[in-house]
Amino acid sequence: MNDHALPKLLAASLVTLLAVACDVEFIAGPSLVQGGERVQYQILVRPQDNNSATNATVHLAGDVPIGWALDTAQFQASIGGGASGDLTVYATDPGVITGLPAVPTGHRRIYLSAGPFTTITADDAGTALLTFIAAGAAGSYTMTFWAGVTGQQNDPDLFFSKPLTVTPPPPANTIFADGFAAGTVERWSRRVGGDASTVAFLPLDGDADDESSYANHGTAIGGPTATADRFGTPGAALLFDGDDDQIIIAHSPSLNLREAATLAAWIRPAPTGNHYVVGKINLSGSGFLYALDYVQGPAASRIRDALGEAWNAEGYLPIQPEEWQLLVFTWDGQHLLCYVDGRLEGFQAPTTAAIGTNEGDVEIGSYEDARYRGVIDEVLIMNRALTFREVQMMLP
User: Fold this and answer.
1) pLDDT 10s digits, 167-183
2) Hey, what CATH class is 198-393 in?
3) Which CATH number fits domain 5-167: 3.40.50.300, 2.60.40.1510, 2.102.10.10, 3.40.190.10?
4) Where are the domains of the chain?
5) Closest by Cα among 346, 276, 352, 279 to 314
6) Does the pLDDT at position 186 exceed 80?
7) Is the CB of residue 25 less than 8 Å from the CB of residue 176?
8) Which residue in 136, 73, 88 sits closest to 108, CA to CA?
């Protein structure tokens, strides 16, 4: 090797290390906003290449309604085993994300960054949690975000857009019909017995009874025991021993969820044991037709179509033992999402139009011979996708 070859080799290696393009996979947030409302949007970002980056900073550029003020900006990521903190907000374009189109009329462009991070791998992901005060004119807008990494040329064609409508502020002291004071244009509808889209709601208050109008009661097998829920209320959740405890909900047509679905559960897992939370068994092969679990460590939403093709929306942070966490799966016929404690962690856009159907049972805390160990509470199954607002309303 001659004297000039080594610098060239090092330069080529550096380019490889920095060859991580980022893409905004999804924007979660309300589609209807009231003027003056404080509202959050979540921007899910993932690398698009199979290489790593060192000492790199993740950048975001976004078009938002011109009158909106950015109130808080935080970033949660899997980088380095888990990182969180405030995003840096720039007063002017830092020049990292280039080639973007002109800012649309009625919008303004904001620039943010997270990092620098020692190493970013192809398996990493992150969520920017941006809270705005929705000031300015009512009307229709389109929120669009791009992502980039320092030292890597971005692709301006990699973006995600979300249309939204801003309505005039409500009159002072308005009381909404559902009892919530603000931010409830898309209303929370898990009212027991009052929402036909709830096909099963098992509070697990010491039993496996369903409080929905469909009476999809479960059968407890092995003897899961009553224990305290996340509020410390005795007997308001069920403890699964990881050996033979499970709940079986017998098949009914109402549990075939084709074009839309929501699964949700509060869990407090033990440090060991299997990680199956709730799912409908696939009778024509392995796995489930739909499921919510954390088999690989992070939470995951899973569906399978009538041809047996499987689609997963996997999170990026491991579920924590001995802590209460809310897992939510939503499927609206286009977007498969996975939330953990209200934070969007997983996204997939399946090419299938519907989940497959069968006469298989729904299992809670089990799959074949595997058993979940830990506490499960408030299992919810719906035949529609909860909105972003509704997912947030499930949190304390």
Assistant:
1) 988 777 665 444 333 33
2) mainly beta
3) 2.60.40.1510
4) 5-167, 198-393
5) 346
6) no
7) no
8) 136
